[in-house]
Write a structure and sequence with these properties.
Number of helices: 15
Number of domains: 1
Largest sheet: 8 strands, antiparallel
Helix content: 40-55%
CATH architecture: 3-Layer(aba) Sandwich
CATH topology: Beta-lactamase
Mean pLDDT: 96
CATH class: Alpha Beta
Order of helices and strands: EEEEHHHHHHHHHEEEHHHEEEHHEEH
Structural class: alpha+beta
Number of strands: 12
Strand content: 15-25%
């Protein structure tokens, strides 16, 4: 039995306490493999990492222009946001443009990420709604697309069940994902994502191809290439709306702007586009470690692949080799990309 390589180690004091294995693919827009580590042909569920690809029809259909979506609203259509007040207000504002309310969203409700916000809501006697769901912006985008697809039909009636695979909205979304990744999703394993839409298992290599195409427009239809460019501009202008306060997607895109589009997904998945290199990348950690390990790998790849000024180099270094502290803020260890991973990434700087 073969194993994916160890990419990240957790150190406690002088000893390795845990190891995290994973696979990584870096691909150009022609589909040529720039770098492959581990089993990059195994189909994995990308989860929320592909939200930007799922948002392509929102722009390509003309829905975003028809309803005058702002950069923040478009960025949030690609988001796994923290449910902060500005996120909630942005989704609510988009629904107001459509003449609809939060009840139309079929993503479900959960509490926001921040403990302070949860406490404040509890003190006011509030309970979460679908607007707090980290996928509410994506679902508002689906609803916006549905308002165009509905034509003269009653919007609310047309939108019922838009999360189901055979609904016209989800057929458009799935077709965009299939085209970008050059994958026949009718043959792919399919499950139900946390927000109730279908999630399809796609090989890492094909996911990386989709993000190379997202970053360059090459290989996409003309309308999807234009949509990809519009979404990247929106995210670069409003990175807070893709994640939120102190979240890695937001932090890195605030620093690097249009040089990077990155998006985390559940269960240790990360995808990114590096437009100036013409590359896309996809990562999957075997143990599903999203909170720590996959972020370290993403930071190490970006650090190796992009020419960086001193400030950005320091930022990426902090995220590819994290200091670990206990509740008393005492330094207890570190979480770091392995020397073997650093060595494997070396050619990216020269590629």
């Amino acid at each position: 039995m073969s194993f994916n390589p160890v990419m990240v180690q957790a150190w406690r004091g002088p000893a390795v306490e845990s190891e995290h294995r994973g696979a990584l693919a870096v691909v150009d827009a022609d589909g040529a493999l720039v770098l492959g580590l581990g089993d990059i042909e195994r189909a994995i569920f990308p989860r929320s990492a592909v939200k930007a690809l799922q948002a392509l029809p929102l722009v390509a259909s003309g829905a975003a222009e028809r309803f005058a979506l702002s950069d923040a609203e478009l960025a949030q259509a690609c988001a796994s946001h923290g449910g902060e007040p500005a996120h909630v207000a942005t989704t609510a504002g988009l629904l107001t443009k459509l003449g609809l309310e939060a009840e139309v969203l079929e993503c479900g409700a959960h509490w926001p990420r921040g403990e302070a916000q949860i406490a404040a809501m509890g003190a006011r006697g509030e309970t979460p709604t679908a607007l707090h769901n980290n996928c509410s912006g994506k679902h508002a985008g689906f609803v916006c697309l549905g308002c165009v697809l509905a034509g003269e039909a009653d919007r609310r009636q047309f939108l019922r069940g838009y999360v189901e695979p055979e609904h016209p909205v989800m057929r458009e979304v799935t077709a965009a994902l299939a085209a970008a990744t050059a994958t026949d999703l009718s043959r792919a394993p399919v499950g139900i994502d946390g927000c109730s839409i279908p999630t399809y298992a796609i090989p890492l290599r094909q996911l990386a191809l989709g993000f190379a195409r997202l970053g360059t427009g090459q290989g996409l239809s003309t309308d999807h290439a234009q949509a990809a460019q519009r979404l990247r501009r929106a995210v670069a202008a409003q990175p807070f709306h893709v994640a939120g306060t102190n979240r890695l997607d937001t932090v890195l895109m605030q620093a690097l702007g249009e040089r990077l589009f990155c998006k985390v997904g559940a269960e240790g998945v990360y995808c990114a586009a590096l437009p100036e290199r013409g590359w896309g990348l996809a990562i999957k950690m075997d143990d599903g470690n999203t909170a720590r390990a996959v972020e370290v790998v993403l930071a190490a790849v970006v650090q190796a692949a992009l020419p960086l000024n001193d400030a950005d180099q320091a930022l990426l270094q902090r995220h590819s080799e994290l200091s670990l502290r206990n509740w008393n803020q005492r330094l207890v260890g570190r979480l770091a990309a392995t020397p073997a991973l650093r060595q494997a990434l070396g050619p990216l700087a020269r590629g």
